[in-house]
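So, read this over?
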Amino acid sequence: MRKFSRRAAIGLVATGLVLSGCGRDAGTSADKAKDVGAGKISGTVTVWAMGTEGEQLGAFAKEFEAANPGVKVVVTPMGFDVAHDKIISAIAGGATPDISMIGSTWMGELAKTGAVEPTPSNLIDKSAFFPGSWETVLSGGTAYGVPWYVETRAFYYRKDLADKAKVKAPTTWEETQSFASAVKAKAGASQGVYQNFRVGSWQEVVPLVWQAGGEIVEGNKWTFDTPQMVSALTQFQSFYKKGTAPNKVAEGAFPQNFIKGEAAAFYSGPWMIYGLDKDGGAGFDQKYDVAPYPKGSAGGTSLMGGGDLVVFKKSKNRDAAWRFIQWLSDPKTQVKWFQTTKGLPAVQSAWQDPALTSDKRVAVFGEVLKTAKTPPPYSTWEQVARVLEGEIQKVALLKTSPAEAAKVMQQKADDIGTGL
């Protein structure tokens, strides 16, 4: 099972280490992108990639090699648990590959090291990508890298249980609570809505802040102690208070609790479609559906994640590296990559292909991606995210109030800073 960060969507393994003392100038908005040549390319392009990407990119790249005789793409697969630290060590030792896949919240940290190249504007058109995905490669107003694939969250629900309880997929916060109460009272679901309150729980709450019309950062300051954060935490906690979301569920119970009908709904990413269809057995795909995030007072904004690609300044084959990334960003290639790995295209025009429009459940994510947002590209985000998770768990366990949690989040985040 993939958490939201399974494909390095949010980069949860990051340690917050910044190489400010490694003898390199930090990346700044003054960095100038160099054009990439249009001539023939050759030589070896070394790539580091994680998870499914690392396992399948090598074979997938054969088509690029065939179109560019003399070019060899060598992919080194690695686990998510070691990827971040391996990249940081490689930067410190001056032994980086040409290209690396990175988690979408790592950019602020990596740009600050000065080790990654600005994105060449003559090769990559930023308008081709979802706005939220392009934000994941920005640092100080400069793009360092390219979005490869994207992920976001939507509302999964058991259609059969909803039909039994005579309710529809919720479209607002208020309807979500009514939905959870109805399926518990009338359809036998002990968990109206499953909410994660452990590692990664910030992914449950941050979208609620945006939906309430708030932000988690303004300028160079964290903004957690706000009415919008209190509203988000109050909405999150309301399910635990009313008993429609359990706070005593054993770790590892999800997603079997959904398959068994114990949990009637949850929020997650597109990969769950394929896992549920497989693990649920024959006919289970008819028992559930996917709907957009229920809207708060300011809309239904969801969370943008995914994987980005960067080229390091010490690349030994710079032009070929960027041309390979350009090929991976082509709409047709993006569709083929989706068909190979189920990684959603970051390029908007790829979503017009029947491969993505034919499954209505997948198409929901395409709509959600249009307004999805990303956490700020700050080098300290991972540290701040851990703070949020600690307070969110207390909120879920009813050990603190939303207002008090927001205050503590603000105090601890201010102590950490934004790293700017």
In short: Residues 1-26 have pLDDT under 50 and may be disordered. The chain has two domains: 43-151+305-368, 154-302+380-416. The longest helix spans residues 381-396.
